[in-house]
Predict the structure of Ribonuclease PH.
Amino acid sequence: MRPSGRAPDEMRAITIEPHFTRHAEGSVLISFGDTRVLVTASVEERLPPWLKGKGEGWVTAEYGMLPRATHTRGQREAAKGKQSGRTQEIQRLIGRSLRAVTDLKKLGERQITLDCDVIQADGGTRTAAISGAFVALRIAVNKLMAQGLIKEDPITAQVAAVSCGIHQGTPVLDLDYVEDSAADADANFVLLSNGNIAEAQATAEGATYDEEGLLRLLRLARIGCNQIFEAQVKAIG
Amino acid sequence: MRPSGRAPDEMRAITIEPHFTRHAEGSVLISFGDTRVLVTASVEERLPPWLKGKGEGWVTAEYGMLPRATHTRGQREAAKGKQSGRTQEIQRLIGRSLRAVTDLKKLGERQITLDCDVIQADGGTRTAAISGAFVALRIAVNKLMAQGLIKEDPITAQVAAVSCGIHQGTPVLDLDYVEDSAADADANFVLLSNGNIAEAQATAEGATYDEEGLLRLLRLARIGCNQIFEAQVKAIG
Amino acid sequence: MRPSGRAPDEMRAITIEPHFTRHAEGSVLISFGDTRVLVTASVEERLPPWLKGKGEGWVTAEYGMLPRATHTRGQREAAKGKQSGRTQEIQRLIGRSLRAVTDLKKLGERQITLDCDVIQADGGTRTAAISGAFVALRIAVNKLMAQGLIKEDPITAQVAAVSCGIHQGTPVLDLDYVEDSAADADANFVLLSNGNIAEAQATAEGATYDEEGLLRLLRLARIGCNQIFEAQVKAIG
Amino acid sequence: MRPSGRAPDEMRAITIEPHFTRHAEGSVLISFGDTRVLVTASVEERLPPWLKGKGEGWVTAEYGMLPRATHTRGQREAAKGKQSGRTQEIQRLIGRSLRAVTDLKKLGERQITLDCDVIQADGGTRTAAISGAFVALRIAVNKLMAQGLIKEDPITAQVAAVSCGIHQGTPVLDLDYVEDSAADADANFVLLSNGNIAEAQATAEGATYDEEGLLRLLRLARIGCNQIFEAQVKAIG
Amino acid sequence: MRPSGRAPDEMRAITIEPHFTRHAEGSVLISFGDTRVLVTASVEERLPPWLKGKGEGWVTAEYGMLPRATHTRGQREAAKGKQSGRTQEIQRLIGRSLRAVTDLKKLGERQITLDCDVIQADGGTRTAAISGAFVALRIAVNKLMAQGLIKEDPITAQVAAVSCGIHQGTPVLDLDYVEDSAADADANFVLLSNGNIAEAQATAEGATYDEEGLLRLLRLARIGCNQIFEAQVKAIG
Amino acid sequence: MRPSGRAPDEMRAITIEPHFTRHAEGSVLISFGDTRVLVTASVEERLPPWLKGKGEGWVTAEYGMLPRATHTRGQREAAKGKQSGRTQEIQRLIGRSLRAVTDLKKLGERQITLDCDVIQADGGTRTAAISGAFVALRIAVNKLMAQGLIKEDPITAQVAAVSCGIHQGTPVLDLDYVEDSAADADANFVLLSNGNIAEAQATAEGATYDEEGLLRLLRLARIGCNQIFEAQVKAIG
């Protein structure tokens, strides 16, 4: 029995509230249960120096956690003067995941930045961020297409992410904080709506796992991502 | 006529949503029109080194703005590796304002940190932050009193803040972003529910002002703060 | 009775020694009693990036305190690797104050930086810095006009600053360190020789204050600034 | 055909030179072809603050690349003043991998730091680092056991890592720099000598992949790691 | 002929004004011609962590240059967020030089910090700093002895420093900025009043030099330091 | 008797292994006994901003020490976020030494960076770095000349460096770590193959020294450098 009473292959409630803020070209507040992440997509008609003049664009991401998103207050990264290794690892993952479904040539010479800020954390913040960032990106790209700034749709598929893990010997879907702290293995899968995998990361925490375990986690992830794909479609409208 | 069509002494709509997040001892989402600030109050049973053993507590604040809270995306301070002078100035002001209504001896040897994060900006973020922080602090202190950790109420009055300015020759209350950008003078007042002043800051931007101008701004601020005091009382319940 | 034996509306001795150093386009050593600040004005024929090509100039300030300007040695900010919030707040105030009396269009596309370094501190360092910076700026601008680089005088008035506070219930002028540490309220006023106000900042420390208190502090500040204006005129010669 | 002429399941030459430096408790120079990494294991009788008094030890890693380990000179991270996101991600991975085969209770209240410095880079630096770090750790732990400081062997298995990828449609083992730059997918597997998986990370670069692709990469990784396990045993002697 | 008209072995005017500031335990304003350095000695009854409990004290130095001490304004190190290599090299040299004449055991478990801040620069700032720092240290130590905190005089000799160089083929004493910029070789000598050498540093700039050149520079340095020793004695009184 | 059993004027074994890594335009692994430094020379067809358009090139150096090059592990400078004063002092010395034998006009508008990374430390790391950097520079310049990118040889002499010191009253050559820790004076000489001196630095540690001592150290340095010049010639081939 999971601490939350959920079945092993049961996601938490997924909600995606589009247009949560008004200045960004795209924005959503996404929740996986008590995990809530605000994502904005900002379009800028400029590029990082190393991409200039190549006839293509860039999609990147930044990630942050409000100091009291967590059970006990964490130090503000802006006050510490640097982003932790964890933060940098997560924002690199989010950026790669979104680029996996974006044709950068069709995007044209512009940059879209996905800012993912965790308002409240209860496990799975990076997977909620990726899943919400897709919606913010989709909204921003739709706006660019409506304005005629982009001719062909650069987005090639939906992308979503979910965590899975082995908790007391049982593979389970969408770990919350309590499960995450006690899991033997902890995985994040970034999947595409066409069935492909963009990223698989499975880490032994308490105990290592075998090939069969890896496959069972991947199959749980597919169940979860299919539900997220539906919620994304509904939010985009 | 103000760009927003408001009368000179008319505040924007004030909303205060208490308990916006669940981990913090106190939290609110406060809005002054399109300006929205999330404030959490975190109680910690520890003190900054220079206060240890003096038999009193500390109230402090941190302030941040999400990168796309504004019309165009700003660089994330955690990524830049330092907080701007503006950020530091604002968080020092918030901290002083809250301490002006807190008896630190009665608070006991603990620290309360008010994290004020701007979700969306349309002028007056620091005054909304102070006004919301009071509610978050009040909720957190009520919890400590209910738990018997504090015997006597350390909070001595309500505190609220509002901006005023001279816009096209007319003193106006609660500047939004459009007015703020064009104001000749820009003031922030931090007022107490007992009628006193905790902080007055009036800065000439385009044109300097005289004593009469200063007094008219102060009187507008009283009108605004009285409305905020009411909204605070309602939110605390 | 004030600790120094001064009357409530009595300034400390003001001395302004112009041309204290030889490389800067303008320089002064200003003293308010034992507070001594060295100010240099540096003219550079370049602008911050965001001002380029707008046909106007810029006046800015930096502030520092020598590690042993104070009673006990403070850590050197260059060694700590960052400027404190207090330092940044003060240098922003000095810059705004000088810009309040400078017509940036008439200054032309050049930048003047006022470096204010506190040699010895006994309260009121920021107000001495502003008052001295005006003289350094005036000397530097005079040089630019004598060289024919500026046609019309860009300086529109004199500016000076002084602190006031409520000490043991009495409003007093020009706080020294001993009074400052014990004051109930602490204010800084930046006033113009034409009678106007460039900046008013009044902060409750031990006890909040009322409108009447604010006005009494402002009136003391006028007395002080008038004396500083005279000393400035004499120093410029 | 691979650019290097290797068969798809062919590793580059593996060499492990133990005792490459003399001060460290354990040290090796490991090469996977032209990739050369110097790893030292440093034993310290102290712990990070958050582990003190828990009766267990810690194994951690740091990673660096000499500025001219690569084809063109990269900026020195010490001169830039911060470690890149890539560096931090890699050193977190190395630390987790080594902890997956270490019983921290049996290690006792001490810390072992694996410093992995890339002397020359030609793809696969992080996997060479993990594979070499195991040998340095084993040598250091053997020394502690010989000195009687540790009673029971805390190391529970061998650990090794190798990269795999999909290159021009073919899954290949142990990517060199040329292949890595052009790969559609890029994976790193950290495997144990008991057959288990400590970490699996598979990232789509040019094209996403499917479950079958993930499994084929994992099987190649087993082939490679088995050869590394043999080389480790020979190096430890 | 030297640009300044001085003879090859002629120092610039040396002035040492003791007690220039009032808070520090020792302070001087020293000038070598137009080079002016303010030095304060701060006594603290605490030690750096690595010296605690060894029954001895520490003498250290920090060095800074006001932004407009020089012909053109330099960036403030506190604003840049780090001290330059040059600054660190100089402050290490000053500290070593003072420790060469201090018996740290007799000093007792306290630290004296010499802050050397250049008010105006015209070549030779580090040598003026060392020469002035000796006086500030002597004054501070005299105070400690007068208070009975130190029993035996820990200062074993006077120390002074001067620069020399080879300018247009001629060895010259006490380079000013114009000479320093054009010198073929540039040397700094730190000498003791007992005739010994604490530090010799001779650097080829435009042209390398030979043993005879090195000795001629050293002999010039003795001439200069003897004059500084006299000025130190007079300043201490 | 020296701790190592060497005669006072006896160098440790000097080995210089050229072409130690393959990407750099020049590279060596140099050893002075147990001190081992890897030096690479990187040629870049770009210049620091302040040198652009002057028709000359630049030679510069960076220095680092692997965390466990030493007896006990030191903190990684990249992790600390800044280079120590010692590191900066050393890399400035290395750069100056190489420039003393390079005609920057003949080098043309390009930069050569010498990266000196200490693999193992046993005293004299900076002198080994300079001596090895000359070989790496020579190899890189030979390559540029062979490619016809440089017409005339910009290198005017060989340069080498060695440390000397006064150990238990005896001047000795090429201090190892044990001697260095106990030396009364510690000197580094950078000498040219034409007999001239590029840099002399002699520092009193435990006891100051006299002119005769300085000369005896210089003469020992000549003996050492002559042996290094021979080893350099052999390594270049």
About this structure: Helices of chain A lie at 77-80, 85-99, 104-107, 125-146, 177-182, 211-236.
